[in-house]
């Protein structure tokens, strides 16, 4: 393989730049030309494709977001859209494509592979909701952003003796809420994967309050619904002064952590190696600190699994 392409698609995630950088540098190391495709699958269809050099990805490893930009593109879900994308790749002589993104983006990659065009997926999303990998690029940075924010909220929560409901991202997955709940010492974690009865949340809050606790934190994943509604319910039920913070897109930005930079470099390097070996339709991942790869189709058919041992520990620590 002498020419490969790389694109980022779906929600951006800190560490995507480190992944793009690794694809470019690893490619060039192996005498492969690397082409950047701008604006995800939309840009692929429109032919927004440029050759990348060593210098193109200089001063990028520490930046959040994605230098190739991202997009959501409905038209790419159609046969015609995918064919148009393949035509563009062929026009540039690009023989294989690395897609950095979430499960939606992998759908696109698997469609191209089914049409005979080799693609490799690299999991990049803050949600950590992709099966077949313990971590996705961006999760650790987003987690640390939440931790830092909640540390600050905790100061004011204590000063005013308030209960705080913190709504965090994660789409349908509770990973960010669970990990942040554990790291921030939350009283409760409300996630889509577990049906935590409202009564037991209230009971735990009251118990803490009676014990003299100055504040309480409830970490709520966006996948279960509105934090604002949940906060209202808590205040009505407990009479404890309650505030809600929806952290929002702050969680998607910022400098990637060391963990995410290393993860991104490893996963992207592995993706280049797979294309070099003639593999197609695979997703790279990390499991038990080993680089692995799986068929994208299998990944798309599997549900995301939350670490239930972590959830159990969380419950035991927040008595
Ligand atoms: P995140 O989880 O961070 O939002 P994602 O990759 O899951 O990332 P999506 O918006 O679901 O984000 O998908 C990104 C893009 O992938 C879509 O806008 C579309 O262009 C393409 N895509 C999604 N599903 C399909 C599909 N079934 N067939 C072809 N392309 C698809």
Overview of the molecule:
It is a single chain. This protein has 319 residues and is of the alpha/beta class. The longest helix has 22 residues, at 139-160. The protein has helices at 16-29, 40-46, 79-91, 103-114, 139-160, 175-183, 198-210, 227-238, 258-276, 296-301, 308-317; strands spanning 3-8, 33-37, 49-52, 96-101, 119-123, 163-168, 188-190, 216-221, 242-246, 282-287, 290-295. Helix content is 43%, strand content 18%. The mean pLDDT is 96. The chain contains 11 helices and 11 strands. α2 (40-46) packs across α3 (79-91). The protein folds into 2 domains: 3-138 and 256-300, Rossmann fold; 140-252, Rossmann fold (3-Layer(aba) Sandwich), CATH 3.40.50.460. The termini are far apart. The strands form 2 sheets. A 7-stranded mixed beta sheet has the order 3-2-1-4-5-10-11, sandwiched between helices. Adenosine-5'-triphosphate is lined by residues 9-11, 41, 72-73, 76-77, 101-105, 107-108, 111, 125, 127.
- Catalogue the unreliable spans: none
Strand count, sense and barrel status of the largest sheet are: 7 strands, mixed
Give the percentage of residues in beta strands: 15-25%
Radius of gyration: 21 Å
- Strand order of the main beta sheet, please? 3-2-1-4-5-10-11
Q: DSSP helix count?
A: 11
Helix residue percentage: 40-55%
Listed once per kind, the bound small molecules are: adenosine-5'-triphosphate
Shape: elongated
End-to-end distance, in Å?
57 Å
Element string (H = helix, E = strand):
EHEHEHEHEHEHEHEHEHEEHH
In CATH, what is the class of the largest domain?
Answer: Alpha Beta
Calculate the mean pLDDT score and round it. Answer: 96
Count of individual beta strands: 11
CATH architectural type of the largest domain: 3-Layer(aba) Sandwich
CATH fold label of the largest domain: Rossmann fold
| Total separate domains | 2
Give the class from helix and strand content and strand pairing.
alpha/beta
